[in-house]
Amino acid sequence: xxxxxxxxxxxxxxxxxxxxxxxxxxxxxxxxxxxxxxxxxxxxxxxxxxxxxxxxxxxxxxxxxxxxxxxxxxxxxxxxxxxxxxxxxxxxxxxxxxxxxxxxxxxxxxxxxxxxxxxxxxxxxx
Length: 126
What we know:
mainly beta; 126 residues
């Protein structure tokens, strides 16, 4: 059973940066598309960004375009979400999710992913 582990969350001031990591100890992520999702208190889960199995295709929510960058290092079995110019509305629990996928497949719909991590808290506040 694929297990995902997120790390890198924390408390940051508005305008600051964080880099989240999603790893799968003991598994290879080569055949998996990876998505990042977030959920703020009292709000529905939102798709933030996703990357295809090869890294050749990416997708971003409009709310994070130009500020967040998703990337992957398949040699390290890790996917990253670089978050810059953070805003208070970026606060929430961030989850990574994985799905075995066809070439260049991406999706920001959480219903299409079978494997989920436990999440990491991101708080943007002064």
